Amino acid sequence: MDIERSHHSNTISGATLEESRPELSWQGQITAFTNLVWETYKSKPISYWILLFLSSSAMLTAFPASSLLSRLYFADGGKSKWIISWTAVVGWPLTALFLAPMYFFGKVSPTPLSLKLLLWYIILGFLTAADNLMFAWAYAYLPASTASLLASTSLIFSALCGYFIVKNRLNLSSINAIVVITIGAVIIGLDSSSDRFPGITKSQYTQGFIWDILGSALHGLIFALSELVFVKILGKRSFHVVLEQQVMVSFFGFVFTTIGLVINNDFKGMRLEASSFKQGRASYSMVLIWAAITFQLGILGSTAILFLASTVLAGVLNVVRVPLTAIAAVILFHDPMSGFKISSLILTVWGFGSYIVGSSSSSSSSSNKAPEH
């Protein structure tokens, strides 16, 4: 009886404490959040936050700029899909430059290059060259805002390829993201009549639409295969190892794309394109040079984000850059922005957000599991 009374009194007192615990007002919640942000800030050195800011800025500006420059190339008279896809890989030495100080001044050494790893780099390089060419066809015929929205479907294929190839899990949030982003892509397809630029036929628009989806699918496959290389061969995912893989894949992508340029005789065609470019030869050169630079800066920024923070933050920045690209395209190129496209944009951001929340909760639950003894 004494035990029961004791348990009963403890239950009552616990309930009383819970009921008497005051709920935080909105001012208190803001204060608590501010304190959390401040504690997080103090937990890292200032150099960390500077690098994180620079990496985030690079990712949010470089990738949209690269997309817009690709569209500008075609809008101002560029014709070659090989040339604009070449700009995505010709800047590979820029990424390699970031590796050199790590080898000479850091405590890291180059990853041993086995025959198996080399073959994987060659395969990924070939797929990257094909992927860039597909996106070049998309930007030749689609508005930049539309091409950017359709390219976001790569998340669908990344999730599916990751599930089948790397055995990653698919939770309800991931499935919801797949469904929502798919609906967004379908909505754009329904609005093809009002989404075409003058001079673009319905057949060309359809080609651009299909190539964009196929490029996104191949991009998802490349992402899953790259993860497989880390899991099965490299066994580690440090900053310099990720950069090494990016340099090697971009190098072989550059080799394959250069072969395509030579076979298609597009190196000689550059002179003709430059002479007929709307803004002149100098502008033609600047478009190609900055398209190459911005693409590599975007890669460096996203790689640094993955290393400094997490895939969740990288996903958040991906969500932000989709509407940034669309808004910039509307302002700079006067892209049509109908109700269909706005609906698709909202659904795309919703899908990305759902995927990020699911990934974040999965990571939190797995890290909070106590080890069994």
Uncertain runs: 1-21, 369-373
Tell me how many strands there are: 0
**Global structural class:** mainly alpha
Total of helices? 15
Q: What is the 3D shape?
A: globular
Tell me the helix content: over 70%
Bin the strand percentage: under 5%
In terms of quaternary structure, the protein is single chain
Secondary-structure element order, N to C: HHHHHHHHHHHHHHH
Pfam families: PUNUT (PF16913)
Main location: membrane
Transmembrane segments: 46-70, 82-106, 118-142, 149-166, 172-190, 247-267, 287-309, 315-333, 340-358
Keywords: Membrane, Transmembrane, Transmembrane helix, Transport
Feature tags:
373 residues, mainly alpha, disordered N terminus, disordered C terminus
Descriptive overview:
- By secondary structure, the chain is mainly α.
- The protein has one domain (about 45-360).
- Helices cover about 80% and strands about 0% of the residues.
- It is globular and about 60 Å long.
- It comes from Dioscorea zingiberensis.
Summed up:
The chain crosses the membrane at residues 46-70, 82-106, 118-142, 149-166, 172-190, 247-267, 287-309, 315-333, 340-358. The chain has 373 residues and is mostly helical.
Which SSEs are present, and which pair or pack?
Elements: H1 2-20, H2 26-42, H3 46-75, H4 81-86, H5 92-104, H6 115-141, H7 144-151, H8 154-166, H9 172-190, H10 202-234, H11 239-263, H12 266-276, H13 281-308, H14 311-333, H15 339-367
Helix pairs in contact: 3-6, 3-13, 3-14, 5-11, 6-10, 6-11, 7-14, 8-10, 9-15, 11-13, 12-13, 14-15
Subcellular location: Membrane
Membrane topology: Multi-pass membrane protein
Family: Belongs to the purine permeases (TC 2.A.7.14) family.
